[in-house]
Each structure stands twice: as C-alpha cells, then as structure tokens.
Amino acid sequence: MSTEDRHNLPWLAARVRLALSLGLALILLLPVVELGRGRASFAGAFAPLAPIVVGATLLICISAAYEARRYRRFTSTLDQRHATTAEALREQEVQLRSVFEHVQDIIYRTDLQGIVQMVSPSVERYGYRVNELLGRDVNQLYAYPNGREQVLEALRDKGAVNDVELLFRRSDGTLISMSATARLLRDETGRPVATEGILRDISARKMADAALAASEARLRALVQNSSDLITIVDDDSSVRYVSPAAARILGYKPAQLIGESTAQHVHPDDRQPLRALFTELLNHPDQARRIEYRVRHASGSWVQVESIASNLLRDPAIRGIVLNTRDVTDRKHSESELRTAKESAEVANRAKSQFLATVSHEIRSPMNAVIGWAGLLLESPLQPEQQEYAQGIRRAGDALLAIINDVLDFSKIEAGKLALEITDFDLRQAIDEVVDLVLAPAQRKGLQLASLIYHDVPPLLRGDPGRLRQILVNLLGNAVKFTERGEVMLRVKLAETQGASTTLRFEVADTGIGIAPEARARLFEAFSQADMSTTREYGGTGLGLAISKRLTELMQGEIGVESQGGVGSTFWFTARFQTQPRLAAASTHPATPSEPAVGTAACYGVQPRILVAEDNALNQHITVRMLEKLGYRVDVAANGIEALRALERAAYVAVLMDCQMPELDGFEATARIRAQEQSTGQRIPIIAVTTGALPGDRERCLAAGMDDHVPKPVTRDQLAAALQRSIPRPMPIIVDPSRTQTLH
Fold it and tell me: pTM, whole model, 2 decimals?
C-alpha cells in the first residue's frame, strides 16, 4: 500500500459510514412513507413500530449529520495539506531551477541514443544556446580520449561512471578538458530510459598540471645535467638521492652511493662539522648554510668540495637535507696561489718601500746640501749673473724635491697609509702661503694671479692645512704651467654647512690650453697627462692630480674639471672641515713674527746652544750655517755615541737628531737620552731631521721619544718653525723705565 493510499483511508471510512447511515434511514422511513400513502395493510402491520422507527430514524439522521460534518472537516484539512505540499514543491522547484540555471557545471539529460533532452544554461559559457543543443547528438559535442565504448560499457554494467575525462568541443571548435559524471535513469520496471550527468571544466587544472609537469621536467633536467652534485640525505645522514654529477666529481655511479652513509666518504677531520651542520638544519627549517669539506674520490684521493646545505623538505613525514655540492679543488689551488702571490706582492711592496726609503735617503742628503747651499748663496751679496745661477740651482732642486715628494706620496697611497694630520689653521693664511709659492713663476710668465675667498667662508678651520696646500699648489702650479697668457684665479666658496662641519669648494680657473674631452677621463689616473706631447713640452710625472684626488677623498670631498680646448680649464674640488669656536680660535692663533727663531734665540739674552747629531759632512756644514744665521751656537756629533758624550759635557736647548747614523742611530740614542732623564727630571727637546718620508716615519720618531720631525731637505724657515715649536720660551723680564739709570 502506497503512502497516498494510507493518507486516503480516513476519508474512505467516513464516506462508507455516511452511506450506511443514509441507507438505514431509507429502510426505516419507507414504512412511514407507505403509511402516509394510506396503505392500510402495511400501516397496520407497522403501526406498533412507528415510534421506534421514528426514533431510530432520528438517531440515524443525527449520526449522518455528524459524519457529514466530520467528512467536511477532514476534506478541509486534506485540502490544506495539499496546498502546503504544493507550495513546498513549488519552492523546491524554484530552488532547483535556480541551481540548474546558475550552476557552473553543465547538467544534461539524454535519451539512450544520446539525443539531448535537457541541458543547463551554463553551456552558454562555451558559446552555445540551450535551444541549439536540444535534440542534438551529444557525441558531436565531446570525445573520449580513452575510448567512448569503454565509457558506455561501464555505464551499462555499473549504471554510473565517475570522473571520466573527455574533450568538450566549444562552439568555436576548440577542445577543452572536462570531467564527466553520469548515471542511467530507469523506469518502474528497471528498464533504462535515459542518461543524466554533470560535466565539469577541468582545463585550468589540466593547465596547472601541465605547468607543474613541465616545471618538474625542467627541474629534473637541471638536476640531471647540472655540473654540481645534488644530494638528498635522510635525517640519519644516509644518501637517498644522488645526481649523475657524482660520476664526474667523485668517480662513483649514483647507484653506488644510494643508501650509503655520508660519513663513509667524508674526511675524518670534517665529519663532526658536517654532522653538526645537519643537526642544526634539521632543527631549524628554511635555513641554508655553506660548508667546505673533503670527500674521498673513487680513486682514493681527496676532493675539496663546497656544499650549500638546506632543509627544504616541507613534509614533516619526510626529514632530510638537500646538498648542492661543487668541486672547489681548483679554486682552492687558485686561492693558495693567490695567497702566495699576495704574500710575494707584500714582500715586494715592502722591498719597494725599503728601496724608496733608501733612494730617498741617498737623494735627500745631497739635495739637502744643494738646496741649502743655494739658499745661503742667494742670501749673500752676488752679482746679477751669479744670482741667476744660484736661483737656477735652487729651482732645479725644488723641482727635484717635488718629484720625490710626489713619488713618496703615491707610495703612501698605494700602501693605504696616507693619513691626514688634523690641526687648527687659518684658511686665509694658508691661501696666502699657496699664492706666494706660485707667484714667482706666474710673474715670470706675465700672468695675473689672484685669489678670492667669499665672505661667508669661515676663516678658522680644523683640518689638515698641509694637505690642503698640497692640492692647491698642484692645481695652481698646473694652471700656471699650462697657461701662456691671461690669468689664473683661485676661488673659495661655501658649499654646505652642517652644524660644526663645513664643506668648501675650491676652484682654480685659467685661460690656458684647455683639455680635450677624451683626455679628461684619465686625468686623475696615476702617471697620466692629456698626451705624451704634454709631458715632453711641460714636464711632470703625472702624479699630482692622482694624489690630489686621493687627498680630496680623505677630506670627504671630490674633484673634477670643466674645460674647453683653447679657452681654458677650471679644476675644482670640495673638502670638509670643522669650524673652530671663535674664542678658542682667537686664543690659539697668535700673530706669527717674521723671524720666529731669531726672536726666540734673542729671548735668552745669550746665544742658546744646539747639538746637531749628523754623520754627513755636507749636511753638518749646511745645518750649522742655518742655525748660526738663526742666532744659535752649534756643536756637531757624527753619531749617537758622540751625541751622548756631548750632552754629558754641555747644556743644550735642543738636539737635531739624524735617525740614520753609524755605530748608534738616532732612535737608540733618543731612547738612552730619555732613560737618563728619568733620574734628572729634565727633558731636552729632540727634533728628528731625517731623509725618511715614508708612511709611519713621523709616527715612529714620535714613538721613540722625539718631539718633532722635519724631513730633509730642510729649509731655514722649516728649521726655525720646528725650533719655535719645541724650545720652551723663557719668561721675559719687565723693567720699569722709571727705575733705570744710565751707567757711565
């Protein structure tokens, strides 16, 4: 019995009860009717029963009315149920139709011959209209890559197929991959009547799978063909995978290493560091480390390798280390050769430095005499022709000295030992000194030489005035050298100010020959000039601008040039200095007397005595004459031992100490003097006068206990300045003029 039949049972029972009640009522009422028609015989027979019949009939009628009422109530309830069910069915139909119309997948139904009976609107995404596909053979729309008959056979046998891949033909003829799920529809007898199913677009997934497969293929090809050895080891250090490069690097086939422990092939001294690295990486994923170690080759030799080890296996169930290993044996040999070459170069550089020191000593000693004698000769009464000869000697000596200084400075640059000596200085005074140095050659060529310091440039600075003067002398000297007529101008501008730090811009402009554009790029290279004809015509080593460039870099600046051939050039550079506090600057920059040393010697009231420790007779003679002209009495010692003896016999205000002397050099002599002074509590100024001008010479002299350092050749002004810095000035005696008297 169906559910619908069970629901109709109460309604059928009510109808039966109503019919029985009405039938019984008719039977009972029939005698009454006949009685009313006057059938005496019938009435007489039923007359005694009339009351009973009427009563029963009344009861039956009441019962029939009650059943009729129940029937009406039941039918009303049944109608309401039918209405509710119909509404629910309508809502369900709306929902199903909405899903059917908006689903992304294609929902379809065909008869057993494959003729489309129903299809969802989602086919419009592929260029079809619904009406266009109804009645069409579905086999025209897609094909089975693995065979249609196999799919149909599975559908007949099992009644359904799941995730069958097929190619769906779009309206434009292109094929896309789809996954089909279908089942047979059967009637109440179990006979198949139709097929329905769902088509899902898997083209994006197929493309992703294809891309992944291509990527895996590329990665596999990369690993298979990589010159590096790719190895995967388990967390117990056993080898799980080895790339074919093992044959080239280690001499093993990959199969020979699978399952082996890495420790079997690693040098015993390198096993512990490699094991510690594995432990670290296993405990800290997503990290990579580089390590060098030795691995045994199949031939028995050791191969130096470098590995980048990483823990990139993200699956917690798969622990292991990936090693990208490279044979670095040749590189290690190259590094060893490079270290050997570096050590050899350092030895050669030290030898070069020693050679420069020796050459400097051998050249500066006679130069000291040449320049010194020329200077003294120029101070004596000379005839004009003699004056010209002496000036020529002095200029030649100065030129040779400039070349030596350039070579030594460049040597310092190469050694990385060129350093600045920071001190307070007056910028205007430094500029005046530079202009004075190049004024004479400019005047000889009839050039106008001028300097301009802008009003906002601070005059009192802290930096290295000596190196600043060196750059400016280089640039101004070049400008005068390469300018035949016109002028040379030095300008100083304020470029930037940051707190106590000031950056200045220096410009040297000339009206000389100019520089071709192709030559500017190499101007600041060592031993470089615009062209070789420049060297032949004007001379020079080509080191000045290279040195100037490095000096500006040390001063946190830069250098450049702007030039036009035949018009002139402007060389510029920037340098950073510290500005001095005004009060401190005023107290640390007293006026400089024109003859500082003479004045100092005169302060003593008697001629102060100076000891000169010098082994070279020419240098002895020239130094003595310079000191005598400065107002000092001079004693000479030919070596350190004689100097110590002289200090025991007489008192001196200072010692001029040559550092390179026979028997006892200046460094050891100074050390003994300072040791003796420990007991006396006195200290005599010792000034190093040496031919050394290499990096560290000044520092070495000061560290040995000397008070100052003056490199040869020494001019009288340099000697006077050093003495003034080192010799303490006596307190002047102030005499009241009112208490003086004239002696007769």
Answer: 0.47
